[in-house]
Amino acid sequence: MRISELSAASGVPLPTVKYYLREGLLHPGEQLAATRAEYDETHLRRLRLIRALLEVGKLPVASIKKVIEAVDDHSLPVHTMLGTAHYALAGEVPSATQDPEWDSAQAEVDQLISAFGWRIESWAPPRAELTEILSRMRKLGMKPDLRPYAEAADKLVTEVEMNQISFDGPRDAAVEALVLGTILYGRAFDALRRLAQESESARRLAP
Amino acid sequence: MRISELSAASGVPLPTVKYYLREGLLHPGEQLAATRAEYDETHLRRLRLIRALLEVGKLPVASIKKVIEAVDDHSLPVHTMLGTAHYALAGEVPSATQDPEWDSAQAEVDQLISAFGWRIESWAPPRAELTEILSRMRKLGMKPDLRPYAEAADKLVTEVEMNQISFDGPRDAAVEALVLGTILYGRAFDALRRLAQESESARRLAP
């Protein structure tokens, strides 16, 4: 298809498509003549991925470039490619503080990780994030028990979310599914928790 | 205690304590002399609540005022007071759009709510939020099944979170516990989901 047809089919405005081409986010079409290039399914898929990273993942263009590089580097195994996207979504990672609260929270997070047999890189952003949250909860006087939350997360991820990603299809599509699933199921769960809270508060207090 | 002791005990800087007094967020101490007022436990609890709303809930001062008004209005039942805080945390609520996707998503959300026997106000922010997320997921071509998420949310809220709020103690403390629990367990669950995703991706793809 022509670039105007690519724009129409994807819903991405023509100047934006051209911008992605200039930035190297979108690969060039096949040059048929000096003023005409042919675009195909792979371009449509790439535009879907860019839109997911931009609009749902809220990633800046620099981070999107890194994710796209990992998608295009076919020497990278799928797990590594997905990890690049996954870590990019994490935003700013809290850094360890020099206090005993941090160390004990980190130890508890690591115990939880090993209790579930999870395979996690030591530099994984959610490991530091969970440590920060747990240490914060303790400083505020809460006595959180994260185990039931970890169980629920494990079950939802292994039984629902990961089944919705096709790992042996196009690399763009796998990353897109991971980004959409991570962000949108996360937001949906948050809204569901708030609904359950409202209802439970009504049940206990306004019978 | 004197105002300087209140500042030291709460960890809130003295100028900030004075600002909260001027703004009416903190109730005046008992005036013992022209230049001396006495503060007590209720002031400490109020400062904890303000900090929770500000630092964890990230609420603007205008919203904090509304929540504090509900706490101070003892004619409001506890459920209504908690609801005021809960809805304040929701931020901007998406408004219904005039398309069939929104209507069908709204219908599915309402089916879910009634399947779980949840008691939810029709104007509850998470009802509109979930509708917006579901309709967005569908427009992006996802086929989400929210039921397992609703089940997990229901279980965690009724069996863990709501048990950590003391409903018959001081009103400040109940609202503080609700705010901390809503935000921090939410963030913890999100980090746990990401850990489970990383591990499951490793298990499936890099055995």
UniProtKB/TrEMBL annotation, chains A, B:
Keyword DNA-binding tagged: yes
What's the protein called, per UniProt?
MerR family transcriptional regulator
**What keywords were assigned to this record?**
DNA-binding
State the species of origin.
Answer: Nonomuraea typhae
Q: Which InterPro entries match?
A: DNA-bd_dom_put_sf, MerR-type_HTH_dom, MerR_fam
Stored SMART domains: HTH_MERR
User: What highest taxon heads this organism's lineage?
Assistant: Bacteria
Query: What PANTHER family does the annotation carry?
Result: HTH-TYPE TRANSCRIPTIONAL REGULATOR ADHR, REDOX-CYCLING DRUG-SENSING TRANSCRIPTIONAL ACTIVATOR SOXR
Instruction: Outline the extent of the HTH merR-type domain.
Output: 1-70
